[in-house]
Amino acid sequence: MSEQVQYKCPCCGGAIAFDPTAQTLKCPFCETEYDIPTLEAYDKDLLNDLKEDVMSWETAGGSEWQDSEAANIRAYTCKSCGGSIIGDANMAATSCPYCGNPVVLPAQFSGDLKPDFVIPFKLTKEDAKQGLRQHISGKKLLPRIFKDENHIDEIKGIYVPFWLFDTDAQASCRYDATRSTSWMEGDFQVTSTDHFSVMRAGQLSFHNVAIDGSTKMDDDLMESIEPFDFNDAVPFSMPYLAGYMADRYDVPQEGCIDRANARIKRSTEQVFRYTVQGYGTVMPVSSNIRLINGRTKYALYPVWLLNTTYKGQRYTFAMNGQTGKFVGDLPMDKGLYWKNFGIMTGIIGAAFFGLTYLLQMI
């Protein structure tokens, strides 16, 4: 029993067949012709597209604490939210930086890894206050009482645990692209569209892709205050914790791999896409990424957390303790919104009425 072999046109998807006259494969729908070596190479590329990404890591970030170091560490757990922080023996932990609960009880410290690096704080508590003032400045729909009577409930300098991922990425990406040309033939506009299968392949290097290792820290908030400049990182030493808290990681490096892979894959695809120029349309078809020499480090990054309350709702802001980048959501005064909306509606209505009157006078 024989089976008919069918090929689909890469341009329009229609079934193509061998044309004995032209001695090529030809699509009867878009009339595109293909020589056999080209189509065989295309089929080979399609088979490569089916390969899965290879994104594996050697997770060796962090090291064991020495007994003398561990003796000077205190761990605290919040009974309210379960948040866990660590600091030196002199740290006075009086409130939780996540929920503001004033009851923070000592907990057993064991099993944690020692950070490889730390970026020391460069900015002070006063810088964090100034950052909030600048953040709310010029926000016309911000409730007046939030600006006039706003009080900051908590300002905490805290070292946030980050797993840092380094790797080389070998990648190949394929795109369907078109380039169209139009001209007039009598009263008709004729458009000819050429279709291209575009391939890109190469290698990129990634260094210090930072993924926070704390479930208590909002991932979007932490990514928003990036980047940190790793050039300021120094080998970890306990004195850097003096006067600050350090978030106790509760997500191991293995648990952060998926997020790191997603960021690396997204960045790789974006870089390769920027190299595809000169076409009318470009549609990504497939990508294949293979990581080489993937390895991790454990570091503490400086973050100022500011908490404030408005109408019973808690608002948390974060500032990069190295660069000063400030982020956080703000409340909106609905009364001011509708008042401004009414004013703008009135202005537009008056302008429309005036324009209509002038047109009637012409």
Write the layout of secondary structure elements.
Elements: E1 7-8, E2 15-19, E3 24-26, E4 33-34, H1 36-49, H2 67-70, E5 73-78, E6 84-88, E7 104-107, E8 117-118, H3 125-136, H4 144-148, E9 152-185, E10 188-212, H5 219-224, E11 234-235, E12 245-247, H6 257-274, E13 281-310, E14 313-320, E15 326-327, H7 334-361
| Element string (H = helix, E = strand) | EEEEHHEEEEHHEEHEEHEEEH
What percent of residues are in strands? Answer: 35-45%
Number of helices: 7
User: How many E-type strands?
Assistant: 15
What does the main sheet amount to? Answer: 11 strands, mixed
Short account of what is shown:
The protein is an alpha+beta fold and 362 residues long. The chain contains seven helices and 15 strands. Helices cover 24% and strands 37% of the residues.
Q: Would you kindly provide a written description of the structure presented here, covering whatever features stand out?
A:
The chain is of the alpha+beta class and 362 residues long. It has two domains: 1-50; 67-171 and 198-339, no CATH class. The chain is built from seven helices and 15 strands. It has helices at residues 36-49, 67-70, 125-136, 144-148, 219-224, 257-274, 334-361; strands spanning 7-8, 15-19, 24-26, 33-34, 73-78, 84-88, 104-107, 117-118, 152-185, 188-212, 234-235, 245-247, 281-310, 313-320, 326-327. A hairpin with a 6-residue loop joins β1 and β2 (15-19). It is elongated and about 85 Å long. The protein starts with 6 loop residues before the first strand and ends with a helix. 26% of the residues are buried. The model has no long low-confidence stretch (mean pLDDT 77).
